[in-house]
Amino acid sequence: MASYLQIADDEKGHDLDLFCVPRHYENDLDKVIIPHGLIMDRTERLARDIIRDMGGHHIVALCVLKGGYKFFADLLDYIKSLNQNSDKSVPLTVDFIRVKSYCNDKSTNNVKVIGGDELSNLAGKNVLIVEDIVETGRTMETLLSLLSECNPKMVKVVSLLVKRTPRSSGYRPDYIGFEVPDAFLVGYALDYNEYFRDLSVSVFWKLITQGLLL
Fold first, then answer.
1. pLDDT digits (tens, 9 = 90+) for 53-102
2. Which part of the chain is the Phosphoribosyltransferase domain (predicted)?
3. DSSP 103
4. Which residues is 176 bridged to in the sheet?
5. How far apart are CA 195 and CA 197, in angstroms?
6. What is the model's pLDDT at position 213?
């Protein structure tokens, strides 16, 4: 089972006035939940674990857009650093996809993959799917089922966040950064209807009001 750092349900977080917050969001945010340094340290360890398990063979790193782009970039920076500073290195290529389901905000097995090279090119490859957050897990299960039809050699999933939620299908990624409460989080490229992507990359935020979005 994947190891992770657990953020408790009663986590109080850190006061906003300790950090730089864009003025136009000051009234819409509650607390800093995970500081940037903790994110970076955890991401570095995930990179080491991935190289340990998947190293020695060409890896195709597949970023799930849009929310995963920041985590993807930081994770690959650590993997590249390991490649440059150790006796063991692994060839690495990247690709990008968007995964959409079409049932309002509810998870569904009706998943459409947008972008990326032809998935058939993944045959015989070691594939690392990089995701920002896994909630119910149903979308990722459907994506994995689609990828299995392409006959990759290996598929691993790394997600920065996994929610503790009664709606979970039971799916767990191979690598997990943090397990978080069933609350809405934004920042570090996570958004709400495309808002909040411009928050500082240094923190996660918990949304307390959506007044400016109404």
1. 997 789 999 999 888 889 999 999 999 999 998 877 888 999 998 887 64
2. 38-192
3. B
4. 159
5. 6
6. 44
**Could you tell me the two tokens for 119?**
């998935």
Residue owning tokens 């609350």: 183
Helix axes 69-84, 36-54, angle to 10 degrees: 60
For the record, the structure tokens of 86 come out as 């150790």
Q: What are phi and psi of 194, to 5 degrees?
A: 75, -5
For residue 163, which of 140, 134, 204 has the smallest C-alpha distance?
Answer: 134
**Residue 188 CA from chain centroid, whole number:** 10
3-state secondary structure of 26: helix
For residue 178 the two structure tokens come to 């943090």
* Residue type for position 21: V
Query: Which phi-psi region, left, alpha or beta, contains residue 31 (left: φ > 0; alpha: ψ -120 to 50)?
Result: beta
Q: Kindly indicate the confidence band of residue 208, based on its pLDDT and cuts at 50, 70 and 90.
A: low
193: left (phi over 0), alpha (psi -120 to 50) or beta: left
Which residues have a Cβ under 8 Å from the Cβ of 143 and sit 6 or more positions away? 64, 99, 111, 113, 129
Type of residue found at 34: I
Structure tokens of 111?
A: 């998943």
Which tokens belong to 172? 């767990």
Which residues touch 128 (CB under 8 Å, ≥6 apart)? 50, 54, 59, 60, 61, 62, 155, 156, 157, 158
Contact 160, 132 (CB under 8 A): yes
**Where does the chain show beta strands of DSSP type E?**
5-6, 29-35, 59-65, 92-101, 111-114, 126-134, 154-163, 175-180, 185-186, 203-207
